[in-house]
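Hi all, long-time lurker, first post. I run a small reading group and we've been trying to get comfortable going from sequence to structure in the token notation. Rather than ask abstract questions, I figured I'd post a concrete chain and ask someone more experienced to write out its structure so we can walk through it together at our next meeting. Sequence below, copied exactly:
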Amino acid sequence: MKVLAINGSPRKGGNTQTMIDEAAKILRKAGIEVESLSIRDLDVRPCTGCESCFDGSWHCPIKDDGLRLIERMADADGIILASPIYCGGVTAQLKAIMDRSVIAYENKDLKNKVGGAICIGAGSHGGQELGVLQLVSTFAMQDMIVAGPGGGMPGAMCTAGDKGDARKDKDGLKSARELGKRMAELLKR
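-- Answer (accepted) --
Happy to help. Here is the structure in token form:
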């Protein structure tokens, strides 16, 4: 079994990666392989709305890393989407992949995969809930199974402004570990 974790942050080694690493530790302890990718290292452009992907052929005229990333999502058993919050939502880089994942929708290529959402905001009311809802909405559209960290939360959330601050948010780190635990439970069913 394999989980693909996609880091939507443009910052290297920041708080988003810290939260992904916390979830990944638990998944790996459960014997699940985790591959972590950062959008920062890829060339991913936004959807142009041409609708050429609507025929189910997996054709996209945009020549970048986006289609290959979505193919890797389709090959995984579980997917973590993680993002810092920018202006009340996920980063534009991650949103581009979410939008372009419609190419997998036509053939239900992400159906029944386990999805985990992680968002990090600079303040305790930094928009984490809105970001998690964006991610969970993408999972729902794709007919995926949403894994939450418990406590009625649909995703893991952390408060961290400066690089390294995620390590200070014990509840946030715990929510990432709980998310990893729940994803492992669902993947092993």
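A couple of things your group might point at:
DSSP finds six helices and six strands in the chain.
The chain has a mean pLDDT of 95.
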